[in-house]
Design brief:
It is a single chain. The chain has 276 residues and is an alpha+beta fold. Helices cover 18% and strands 26% of the residues. It contains four helices and twelve strands. It has a five-stranded antiparallel sheet with strand order 5-4-7-8-10. It has a three-stranded antiparallel sheet with strand order 1-3-6, with no helix packed on it. A two-stranded parallel ribbon has the order 2-9. It is elongated and about 105 Å long. The termini are far apart.
């Protein structure tokens, strides 16, 4: 019991409150191209919502797996928790289809100490939508039962390290607002080729074309995280690096060793007679 109590005390400082959406209601039907009234409250887990500072809010559609849903449009890109627990936004009727319970909200919250929390709302329907979904999204919607959205994720406060603002790479690139942007480390290649035909890793998404000149970017650089891969891949990558380092050091030692002296047997003495 003492060990469990100590472990719980260690984890509590990393806990953050989850956002619980109260509007739109689960299974509600809203009119397309009309304002979506969004409200939320503290779920009661972890600390108060006052520990969260900023958020971004998106309209999503698809299944509950990360590979089967997409972000359709931003509702709020620079939200502040200090202004209240409500937001509102309108999206075009062309961003998706009229499928029942296809839509839900995604909120990415940032804590005062850099913690990352991602929450999803219950599902709802937008009637009168005139767009279409990609096949992978349609397939994801067809597999959904009930009105629950995807599961929430809570990364807690990142530990301080020389790598800089760790955890920021979890926030989507377009939602980051600082002078330095962060990106996850790319996945190391596998050891075997198992696929015979190439397939897209992520579903397609719409790209709005700029009609006027865009403002000059303020960001100065992009920092890539030092290690954000799956543990098994990371260990394999690190072991490969270690083996390469050991091999390089061994080769360096061998090439820097002094040359062996020439043999001094009778044959060598005989050959020395003919050197001139």
């Amino acid at each position: 019991m003492l060990i469990k109590a100590c472990l719980l005390a260690t984890l509590l400082p990393l806990a953050l409150a989850d956002v619980q959406f109260t509007s739109p209601a689960a299974g509600a039907t809203l009119a397309a191209a009309s304002p979506i009234a969004i409200k939320w409250k503290d779920s009661g887990d972890g600390t108060a919502l006052t520990d969260l500072t900023t958020y971004t809010l998106f309209l999503c559609a698809g299944g509950n797996d990360a590979a089967s849903f997409i972000q359709l449009a931003p509702i709020t890109e620079k939200g502040l928790f200090s202004t209240g627990n409500a937001a509102s936004g309108t999206v075009a009727a062309t961003v998706g289809g009229p499928d029942k319970n296809a839509y839900f909200l995604k909120m990415q919250s940032v804590g005062a100490k850099g913690a990352q929390v991602i929450n999803y709302s219950d599902r709802f329907t937008l009637s009168g939508m005139t767009g279409t979904f990609p096949p992978v999204v349609k397939d994801g919607i067809s597999k959904v039962t009930g009105t629950d959205g995807p599961p929430s994720t809570n990364q807690g406060a990142p530990a301080a390290a020389a790598g800089g603002a760790q955890g920021q790479e979890a926030v989507s690139y377009t939602a980051q607002t600082g002078l330095i942007k962060y990106a996850p480390m790319m996945t190391p290649p596998g050891t075997k080729i198992t696929k015979r035909a190439p397939t897209p890793r992520y579903p397609t998404s719409s790209v709005p074309i700029a009609q006027t000149f865009l403002p000059t970017p303020k960001q100065t650089t992009t920092m890539t995280a030092s290690n954000t891969n799956a543990p098994a891949q990371s260990r394999q990558f690190q072991v490969s690096q270690a083996r390469a380092t050991i091999g390089h050091d061994r080769l360096l030692m061998e090439t820097q060793a002094p040359a062996a002296s020439m043999p001094q047997d009778d044959m060598q003495k005989f050959l020395h007679r003919w050197r001139d």
